[in-house]
Amino acid sequence: MTPEQLLARDAFLLGIELKLFWLVSLLYGICFFTGIAYLLFRKAALGRATTKGLWITVILHTILILFRTFEGMRPPFQTLYETLSWFAWFASATYLYAQSRWREVHVPGFIVAGIATAACLYSLLTRDPVIAPVPPALQSPWYEVHVITAFLSYAVFVVSFAVEVCYLGFKKSPPLPNPLPRGERESPFGIIDEVTFRRWTHRLVLFGFPFLTFAIFSGAAWANDAWGRYWSWDPKETWSLITWTVYAIYLHTKAVGRWKDKPASVLNILGFICMIMTFLGVNWLVKLFNIPSMHTYAV
User: Fold this and answer.
1) How far is CA 2 from CA 8, 14, 15, 71, 132, in A?
2) Which of 232, 243, 252, 253 is closest to 277 using CA atoms?
3) Per-residue model confidence (pLDDT) at position 189
4) What share of the chain is helix, strand, coil (3-state, %, to 5)?
5) Residue 181 contacts by C-beta under 8 Å, 6 or more apart in sequence?
6) Which pLDDT belongs to residue 200?
């Protein structure tokens, strides 16, 4: 195959991928607005539609990721364009697995869908989709282990954050006027009590925390392979440690009676903010203030 033919083939495949990616982003957006409609009108059908829509979108997103893998002949999380897509998929898939355990609850899906929509649009509108050669710093088996475990922990933290915010915001929402027919109107969290809610958010973070811990250790091993040292207090490394510390404190609130309620919720939300800073915020700060960083490949 001539170079011209290779370029034409790559351009054709990239065009298909971008169309599919835009479709996935649109579907995430529809799920987000369907979830908002569910909050406004409290119709059970809208809640189920949000969840079913996310299932359809995640299936299409899985096809997109497999297509990208075929295009690049490598795992699709080497650039920020790819990792944003990976983040959206992982968070949505994790939410759907968790939601299958509490089928009567649909409201956290609109936050997860909103985060996935934002990640996809940020990737499409600001990142270069062209498949480039893998930078030398990423040519380590530790990098793939690090990314997979880090994003698994991020996905779990997104779900825990969504449940936390929705429960705090809507658990005491007033009843709607003009009640709808029986079975059509419902509370966003059904009959779930606060003890059950706390148990959910705590178990989610408890599940994700070991993966975050292993991600930090595998990241150190990768850094040693790439740059010859395990830890250098790089901005991204520092923020990953801050995120780990916040979630470690959150997990300890279970043992402190006065911290089990609002302080635990604040720490869970703060941990999510720190996680976003680790994933994206550090990139903006490094670029904005011209801070030296060994993770400039992700900027």
Assistant:
1) 10, 18, 20, 18, 19
2) 243
3) 56
4) 75, 0, 25
5) none
6) 86
Closest CA to 169 of 111, 96, 93: 111
* Contact assessment for residue 155 and residue 207, using Cβ atoms and an 8 Å cutoff: no
DSSP annotation of 185 = B
Q: Give the model's pLDDT for residue 253.
A: 86
Q: At what angle do helices 262-276 and 194-227 cross, to 10 degrees?
A: 30
Q: How many helices (H) and strands (E) does the chain have?
A: 9, 0
The helix/strand/coil state of 43 is strand
All residue ranges of the chain with pLDDT < 50 are 173-185, 191
- The conformation of residue 291, written as its DSSP 8-state character, comes to -
Global confidence as pTM: 0.89
In the block, which residue shows the tokens 């402190």? 256
Q: Output the DSSP codes for 72-90.
A: HTS-S-SSHHHHHHHHHHH
Phi–psi pair at 192, nearest 5 degrees: -70, 130
Measured CA to CA, the distance from residue 267 to residue 2 in angstroms comes to 57
Of the candidates 212, 240, 238, the residue with the CA atom closest to the CA atom of residue 155: 212
DSSP 214: H
Cβ(173)–Cβ(187) below 8 Å: yes
Contacts of 81 (CB under 8 A, 6+ apart): 123, 127, 128, 129
Q: Which tokens is 20 given?
A: 């599919």
